[in-house]
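So, is this right?
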Amino acid sequence: METGRNPASGPKKSPFTPKAIIHQRFAAKACYKVEEVQEVVQNGCPGLVIPQKGPCLYRCTLQLPEFSVVSEVFKRKKDAEQSAAEKAIQKLGIQPKEDNLTVEQAWDELAGRLSYLLSIEFLSSIHPLSGHFRAALQRGGHLNGFISVAAIAAFDAKINSLCKYINPEVEWNQFLVMSLIIEAAKRLANALMFSEEKLSLQRLNPHPPEIIHSLLKNESSLPESISIEAVRIPSSAEKIVEPSILDASFGNYYLDAIAKELGVKDASKVLISRTIGKASSETRLYFCAPESITIGPSSELHMKLASSFREFNALATYLSGQEIYGDAILASVGYTWKSTDLSYEDLSLRAYYRILANKIPSGIYKLSREAILAAELPTTFTTRSNWRGSFPRDILCTFCRQHRLSEPVFSSDSFEPLPDLPGRKRLRDTASSGDEINEGGLAATATATATAVAQGGCTLVYRCTVKIYSKCQDLILLCSPKESYKKQTDAIHNAALKVLLWLDRFLDKVDMSVEEMTSSAKGLEVLIYPQQFVKEFSSCQFLPKYRWSSATLADSSLCSSFSNVQKNTLEDEVASVRISGEYSGTTPSNGSLVCVTYNIYLVTEREGIKEQLEGSEEFEFEIGSGATSPVLEAVVTQMSIDQSACFTMELPSKEIVLAVARDSTTVLSLLSSGTCTMKCEVTLLRVTVPLEDRMEQALFSPPLSKQRVEYALQHIRESCAASLVDFGCGSGSLLESLLAYQTSLEKIVGVDISQKALARAAKILHSKLNGNIEAEQLTNRIKSAILYRGSILTCDSRLCGYDIATCLEVIEHMEEHEACLFGDIVLSSFCPQILIVSTPNYEYNVILQNSSPQYQEEDPDEKSQQQSCKFRNHDHKFEWTRQQFCQWASELALRHNYDVEFSGVGGEPNKEPGFASQIAVFRRKDGSPANADFTKHFDVIWEWSSSSNSRS
């Protein structure tokens, strides 16, 4: 097991990157040119030789005045650039002088750097710190020429790099840098003066007056009055975060303006945090140094600073990742590498709360979509064409940077699936070498696999492992999913998403015990190293409990109010939702890609004020992937194209409202009135049905889904069954169809794991079983109907002994070993008289895909291989050939004393490649099953009984 690596006594490599060394020597004369390199990989269709675009790779050419070099191929552009620079360094014979710095050499370098920073030469350079020196020379009185040690520590990267050689702890304790600077300044007593009272440095020999006059003369003409919006973060939890105004007028040192706002004398009493948010940003936290402090050994400075304050600033500490005491000012102001002018931006309350959101995985995703109220981090990674917003890998990288962790390490492995299952998408158990064992216990040797690959019978599939390290290179988290994918990028994104979902869960409850952390992580195939993990996320205990999840429907539940359902008094779940416009007949279903226009408003009913919070002209999301607010999705699934809806949502916390509000003052005023509600207006613009439905609709009339239902209805009539259970009933399409035909059924039951799908099924069935006069004569045999929520891989005695059971297009959404488990459970424990199972015929996919029209939103990589045998739905874990399905069903029937016959719909039985949907009908040979005694695992979601629902 990998346990992580501890840092050595100092950095193992130069603080200068190869590119930095080249820049020092050649500056603008060094020209980098990066080109994309295409790699051709095998496609997913056995026996076909069709090129498939592989992952993007990059190669860099570095042109120098005397020669050029070409890098190796890398996945990231910056790695290719660094490689080219490293080759150039080797060719030039340059030996970085910091390669093997001793501690004493580092002290000498640090003292030399301080001497240079206070030199006349540095004064005119373009550097983030040079502006501070120029401003210091314009200060009046006893402060003239003094530059604070905190500013030097915060704004000079070279100083920080050298300090790491002396004490590696400065990597995570920036205050130690100040102590080392002071110690180095004492070595320059003949040139520098250190003021312990001011925590500042000054040249012993003042700069010549003509130099200062020249600087003032060359200063760009800035506005005489500069007011900068900032945010004040109080240390007291009883006080609120509020806006603040900084006066950085011409001639004033902006750090002095911040000092005034904090209530201290001057800039020397202001400490400065790392950058907050993006690395290129100048947004930092500014807070007070203690009134008096005695500088001791470097290892003691931080403790002395901390103990000098009474109140710990939890919010500021969480934002910066370093301990902050007392009130703090969050501002975006400072000098940059780009100009000698002061750079500044207004920082509003909206920006502050968005910075907070950007430290949470779901918040990062919401911000990437510009939809904090509407979007959610999806629970599954679907095809690239259906995913919207930042990809999981990018979100995870951003998260690690925000929390001062090392970049996540993605390790993907490729292997060949078993050659006897060409339609297999993912394998649960595959050895990296030697024998491979499939679910049936059969072994396939590596030689057989290699032969199958050579003959075009297999293609590579990928798995990905994600590791997250601390800055000290301690391993804190490992995710190694068992699922495998045809595309390397899919494996990477799915693994990253598992990590993100668990991190979101953890940040929602940071006070969970180690046992809770371990068990919750295990469910997502995440392994945490508690001691190291808790250490890295200790500041997260101060995370504000704002809950960045979307709001719910106000005053009524749209899709999950099941308490009334259980009492047979189900009310229309969308009664409070006004849907206007004519019904077009096209409604979203699970897997559909929909596009809506929406606007969310803050409304005061008394005054009739309506302030827009968030909106989008075109907002796309996939139904069923969890990519949007549950209430918004639930409303949209009740609509058809061109229809509009208006509904009231539960008002989220004030902080979330401020994160989306463009006018904080107005919104704060409305919120203070205490009569606010949040309303949403949405219009459904487009619906793109899932790829599987598009393919089936293009070739079959009536659609294949309807043909499957009619096939099941025919067997129900012939069997004279009185009871039916539908495993994986989804939104109740089969159960709804049963109500439109005369059958012998008296009791119908549906089971599914999706609460959202069951809510839709409950609404439809309740509506049709209550007051549907036209269908009364057809449905009068139905005496009871029940919907259960639970996994169909779990036994529940209430489903034992039904006359007929159905499972239409469900098993392919499981892993293959789970499909085998499901078959064993149904036939050995539930023991229906008849079981009907349908699943896609993998061999029919080429015909379906050739007949499927092209759509703009499809993955370009997928469109380039139209002939390849893709699965019909991105959520399918496998698809079986006729032989594989026959073998599975025959062995299942033999084990449990059932007969089985095979048929299907779509296509012809004696014509290649068979039926589009293959069906197995199992019939029990013996009599009634033994009484089952199982725990009742399923939850009753909805129940209807004719005896308690009399009709007029």
